[in-house]
Amino acid sequence: MTETQAGIEAAAAASGSSNVPAIELDGVVKEYLSQGEAVRAVKGVTMSITEGEFFSLLGPSGCGKTTTMRMIAGFEDPTQGKVWLHGQDVTDVPPNKRDVNMVFQSYALFPHMNVWENVAFGLRRKKVAADEIKRRVGEILEIVDLTGREKRRPREMSGGQQQRVALARALVNNPRALLLDEPLGALDLKLRQAMQIELKRIQREVGITFVYVTHDQSEALTMSDRIAVMNDGQVDQLASPREIYERPATPFVAGFIGTSNLLSGTVDRITSGFAVLKLGGEDRVLVAGETHRAGDPIAVTVRPEKIRISTEEPTGDVSVVRGTVFEVVYLGLYNSYAVSLADGAEVTVFQQNAVDSTSTAERGDAVWLSWQPQHSYAIGS
Amino acid sequence: MKRFAPYLLILPGGLWLVIFLVVPMVFMASVSTQEGDVVNGFVQTFNFSVYGDALVQYQTQFLRSAGYGLVATVISIAMAYPVAYWIAFKGGARKSTYLLLVLLPFFVSFVLRTVSWKFLLADDGILLSPMKSMGLVPDDFHVLQTTTAVIGGLVYNYLPFMILPIYVALERVDPRVVEAAQDLYAAKRSAFTKVVLPLSLPGVFAGVLMTFVPMTADYVNAGILGGPQNTMIGNIIQTKYLVNNDYPTAAALSFTLMAVMLIGIFAYAKALGTENVLEAAAR
């Protein structure tokens, strides 16, 4: 393994500097002709992916994430914009001449070749010496734990094993970046979770830049160093998992990542350190920060686990909202409460099942919801 | 009852084959070793020497048939593969239309189409006589009664049977597998030779089976488009049966042809079995 790593470091050294981003997209647009009409799948994406980073493209199906990845791999030509790999403009370079490898959604293993031949395919095309191919294929099969299965055909293997063959087939080439297109989509939950940890381990071990396309937000949050959340052909937010979860940039991101409550109102007044929104009656939402002005209409998100639910009126500088519980769902680790507010809005609250706690509220109870000002996050609308 | 249900499924087809294939074959096998003539009747004498005699007497036609079949098969592969490839990968939404076009000749009788070629290609027909008067070809130029005409007719008549199985095999090739090859540094050409071609070989294999056998046994093309020097074994069998009424020799020739073909096909399947081909292609 150390030799593979040395190879990568040598490659990084050869590229001159590790400051050069592994992948850069510059105003990339992709248009398709669909029944005579131009459809924009990607509407101007600019991003820079750092060497050695685990980077995710996250979004619902049809958001343009796969098209974006395919432009990095070279399978799609951008209608506008440039693609750079390690400081080189590769916009017009065909896929077989780009030093990135892809793990396909359905693995796309060669059905007429056994495991060993599948993994050796790239090295053979690059005319690597036979004994070196033998050594490197052996090494990578060990990393993905497939030693002893060299002679198997893809169809004789389980989904998880095929997945690892696909990974080995790409990684054995020491690519400058590995592109993974929903690689765990076809696996069941248990195996998927195991493979998430496995992928992360392999990525640390080989130190290669991973670009990971997924629609599964928990997968992206678990594995990524940074995430680009895509919506309708554009990047809505590009940040660390924590940032994206805690401070969603748009209502779409707030809704797509985890469960989120959206409350909107008008700024009533500014006091020391926070803005106060009036929602009607005694209800108020406190938003940290003094950038707002009285009269501004703003939307605020708050995560369900940040909200306290109680049958007594809370005190202090906290947001306070009254409502009625209309659903309590026991979820093992926590209870989920659905609370309807006076204006008809719905708020979801998660409360952890601590050592000896019983459910704080029952269906039909009138309750107070409260949370700290810093957990109200104002988002652009 | 349930245990016999699967056998019920093969009953209609099975019976059909037994009655219309096995029974006549047993009958013909019996005829082949009989002696006599039409007027006085045939008597079973277990005269196996007819096989040796027929093979020696008509070995030229046997070899010629095999040669024609082989050449026509090779030409068919060369012509059918690009067509099948184009329909499978570039056909888009109109694939079924193109397939229908491939099958369109079947709507007109095989013999009728071949006969119309005879008219079209006749020495003073509508194609050659204007060309001759314009001096494009010499006056003694002719197409009919040549090897080229017979092989051309064979290819023309059996081409769809080569296109269809190759198309089916190519259609099943996952385009992402081709992309994977390109992603793994294969240029367009080696993505084809290392991935698409090996994955489509079962189709070529099936196409060869479906065309080589009937082309080798064909007598219509040689009979209509060929001359005396183009006689194939099928024509000999036809003449023996229908003109000379020499049933034993005709039956013996038929069986010999069948045996030779079966041996050839088994040898071919063994040497080029799909698995072996794939193994070789993976290297």
UniProtKB/TrEMBL annotation, chain A:
It is an enzyme of class 7 (translocase). Keywords: ATP-binding, Cell membrane, Membrane, Nucleotide-binding, Translocase, Transport. InterPro entries: AAA+_ATPase (IPR003593), ABC_SmlMolc_Importer (IPR050093), ABC_transporter-like_ATP-bd (IPR003439), ABC_transporter-like_CS (IPR017871), Mo/tungstate-bd_C_term_dom (IPR008995), P-loop_NTPase (IPR027417), PotA-like (IPR005893), PotA_ATP-bd (IPR017879). The complex is composed of two ATP-binding proteins (PotA), two transmembrane proteins (PotB and PotC) and a solute-binding protein (PotD). Residues 23-257 form the ABC transporter domain. One of its GO terms (molecular function) is ATP hydrolysis activity. The keyword Transferase does not apply. Its EC number is 7.6.2.11. It comes from Streptosporangium subroseum. It catalyses: ATP + H2O + polyamine-[polyamine-binding protein]Side 1 = ADP + phosphate + polyamineSide 2 + [polyamine-binding protein]Side 1. PROSITE patterns: ABC_TRANSPORTER_1, ABC_TRANSPORTER_2. This is Spermidine/putrescine import ATP-binding protein PotA. Part of the ABC transporter complex PotABCD involved in spermidine/putrescine import. Responsible for energy coupling to the transport system. Belongs to the ABC transporter superfamily. Spermidine/putrescine importer (TC 3.A.1.11.1) family. It holds the Pfam family ABC_tran. One of its GO terms (cellular component) is ATP-binding cassette (ABC) transporter complex.
TrEMBL record, chain B:
InterPro entries: MetI-like, MetI-like_sf. It is a multi-pass membrane protein. The keyword Transmembrane helix applies. Keywords: Cell membrane, Membrane, Transmembrane, Transmembrane helix, Transport. Its main location: membrane. Gene3D superfamilies: MetI-like. It comes from the Bacteria. It is found in: Cell membrane. Residues 62-268 form the ABC transmembrane type-1 domain. Pfam families: BPD_transp_1. One of its GO terms (biological process) is transmembrane transport. SUPFAM superfamilies: MetI-like. GO terms for cellular component: plasma membrane. Belongs to the binding-protein-dependent transport system permease family. CysTW subfamily. This is Spermidine/putrescine transport system permease protein. It comes from Streptosporangium subroseum.
